């Protein structure tokens, strides 16, 4: 994860995966493979009779669950949180932010904004560091700073 101190550019960014709440594909269930028998009626040219059929098959809708849809990067600016992927780019403005919930067990961040029906989940490589940068950006603090290359390195700890 890398960060800059400029107020106009990004505060922090890192790799992320985007997930949406989606309904899985449904399937047909029940019934048997035998549907019945169709026979030609003797003495007619094109009449057929159908008999049988044990039971009808029914459509079973798929389950609803979080589904990862794209890999990309999550960017925190001074005004919003942005996910950038190959096919999809989504932004969440801090002014419209309704809720953010973190799940430490799998490194996921649930983001909800007003005037949008869908919530999104971002799975992040370092949720703790990303959370600190996000709090700093929302509160308007400078956030994490990138270490300047010209500054001297810290001495090693005493042994």
Terminal CA distance: 30 Å
By CATH, the architecture of the largest domain is named Roll
Remind me, CATH topology of the largest domain? PH-domain like
- Class from secondary-structure proportions: mainly beta
CATH class of the largest domain: Mainly Beta
Q: What is the subunit arrangement here?
A: single chain
Q: Please give the radius of gyration in angstroms.
A: 28 Å
The CATH homology group name of the largest domain: Pleckstrin-homology domain (PH domain)/Phosphotyrosine-binding domain (PTB)
Quantity of strands, as a count: 12
Structural description of this entry:
It is a single chain. The protein has 159 residues and is mostly beta strands. The chain is 8% helix and 44% strand. The chain folds into 2 domains: 2-24 and 64-139, Roll (PH-domain like); 27-60, no CATH class. The chain has 1 helix and 12 strands. The strands form 3 sheets. Strands 1, 2, 7, 8, 9, 10, 11 and 12 form an 8-stranded antiparallel sheet that branches. A two-stranded antiparallel ribbon has the order 3-6. A hairpin with a 3-residue loop joins strand 8 (80-85) and strand 9 (89-93). The longest helix is centred in the last third of the chain and has 13 residues, at 127-139. It is rod-shaped, with a radius of gyration of 28 Å. The two termini are 30 Å apart. Residues 1-8 and 145-155 have low confidence and may be disordered.
Please give the structural blueprint.
Blueprint: E1 2-3, E2 12-23, E3 27-29, E4 37-40, E5 48-51, E6 58-60, E7 64-76, E8 80-85, E9 89-93, E10 97-103, E11 108-113, E12 120-124, H1 127-139
């Amino acid at each position: 994860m890398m960060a800059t101190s400029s107020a106009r550019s990004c505060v922090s960014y890192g790799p992320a995966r985007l997930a949406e709440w989606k309904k899985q594909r449904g399937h047909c269930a029940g019934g048997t493979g035998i549907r019945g028998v169709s026979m030609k009626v003797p003495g007619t040219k094109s009449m057929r009779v159908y008999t049988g059929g044990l039971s009808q098959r029914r459509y079973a809708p798929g389950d609803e669950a979080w589904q990862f849809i794209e890999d990309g990067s999550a960017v925190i600016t001074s005004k919003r949180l942005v996910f950038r992927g190959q096919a999809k780019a989504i932004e969440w403005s801090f002014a419209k932010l309704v809720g953010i919930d973190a799940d430490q067990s799998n490194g996921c961040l649930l983001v909800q904004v007003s005037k949008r029906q869908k919530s999104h989940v971002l799975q992040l490589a370092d949720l703790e560091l990303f959370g600190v940068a996000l709090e700093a950006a929302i509160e308007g603090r400078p956030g994490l700073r990138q270490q300047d290359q010209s500054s001297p390195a810290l001495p090693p700890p005493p042994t």
